[in-house]
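Suppose you are handed only two things: the residues of a chain and a line of SMILES describing FAI. What would the bound structure be? This form records exactly that question and the answer produced for it, so the two can be stored side by side and reused later without any lookup.

QUESTION INPUTS
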Amino acid sequence: MRDHVRRALISVFDKSGVEELAKGLHEAGYEIVSSSGTANYLKEHGLSVREIADLSGYPHILGGRVKTLHPSVLGGILARRDFDADLADVEKWNIPLIDVVVCNLYPFEEVAKRKADLGDLIENIDIGGVTLIRAAAKNYRYVTIVTDPRDYGTVIEEIKSLGNVSIKTRQRLALKALAATASYDSIIHFALSKAMKEEDLFPDVYPVSLKKAASLRYGENPYQRAALYAQPLQKLPFKQLGGSELSYNNILDAEAAVKGILLLGDRTGCVIIKHTTPCGMAIGKDLPSAYEGALACDPLSAYGGIIGLTREVDKDTAVKLASKFYEIIVAPGFSTEAVEAFKEKRPNLRLISFDLSKRDELRLTKTAFGFLAQEDVMAPDPDFEGGEWTGERRPELKDDALVAWKAAALAKSNAIALAKDGATVAIASGFTSRVDAVEWAVRHAGQKAKGSVLASDGFFPFPDSIEIAARADIALILQPGGSKRDEEVKEACIKHRIPMLVTKMRAFRH
Ligand SMILES: NC(=O)c1ncn([C@@H]2O[C@H](COP(=O)(O)O)[C@@H](O)[C@H]2O)c1NC=O
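ANSWER OUTPUT
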């Protein structure tokens, strides 16, 4: 390879620390070439800089849309230093070789967060910078690409001590740079899809970029390392107002509580979660009465659980909740007095204020088979008035029917929920046979099963569950229907005079 002046191209939007880096490079004998804004900045800091226009023979044109996009710039980055044909081209076209590229991009993400219009978004799409970064990352075997100011120190240290940036560091920086451009493009795709009101929920390619939002102490178990990632343009929908740090399992449990809150919709209600499974759900005239109702379903399981509330938590509710041990309280908000009351009595209790309006349309779940994508929609209310009934209609049981149905939808399949007086009295969750779920629910409810509403998240494959319900004096059954033996199930209900509402929609949770 021919000898050449060592050269660094610096073109940065975020100029923090770049003068120190340029100074280090200059001291190590590098010529600095920069785009105009960066060149001016460095000159103001007393550095001698060559303008990119001087190297390319072209000024910035189209109001800065084209600044560094030129063969004499990109050729100097992309030429393979041990490839005769590349070197011959470089020689022939008098292209100066570039050994270090320092570049960070137009702040598209920040602009998009400010809810910019489509025109602003478009003007903030960096083209030249991405090209410089990709070119340098592609040629990492000869060229160093630096995209993160936090790496300036390492680069200068290695150049000073080793004479060049080591191949190991160049590889690491190239991968980091490629992750930066990939993430940048996915953020642009996301923001432009929204601004253009793109309606295709399931495009052939779904670019996702994830940024680390928090390091977690460990995962589900201490032998599993873990972290929380978020999509860059989506602000985290929650704020933690108090208590210990959130763990991996806390996040899963809190999410189940949020689902419970969303299922209850605009009603004043409470859900209690244990290990992502509901062990109580109720609606009431106010939060304390809804909480009492939910708690009475299974007080033993509720200990150390997660409480989800559908309304802002006030001081009275806080005082009541603080008298027992829970891990997390999730609600759309907390009054200042409520936060104080919790802090005084339960300083470690995690308080999560969750913005229910910030919801994704799509839920992505990573599996060993690939990412599953589905619309994030909650089980709708059963059609109590217009639905398909067997036997007499029971309008007075509407609230109980709703709570039983929503609790069954939140519980894992096979799920059976029993509700009475606006509160569940049993929630059987995660059973592998439906009849066992019915049997457990009735046993758990004991005397309270009598007169309650039973909801099933899936159809009854046999009429055996109806026989158990009849023995327990169940007042009303809700189930989706759809079994081969629907007629036998109906006949059993008629025989035992239990009215049944066929919801015609399944409410599985797996
Ligand atoms: N148009 C181009 O050729 C171009 N080349 C580099 N940039 C970006 O311009 C910024 C630096 O510009 P300046 O040095 O003029 O402040 C950097 O964020 C860099 O990524 C460009 N801007 C947008 O594409």
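WHAT STANDS OUT: The mean pLDDT is 95. The first helix runs from residue 18 to 27.
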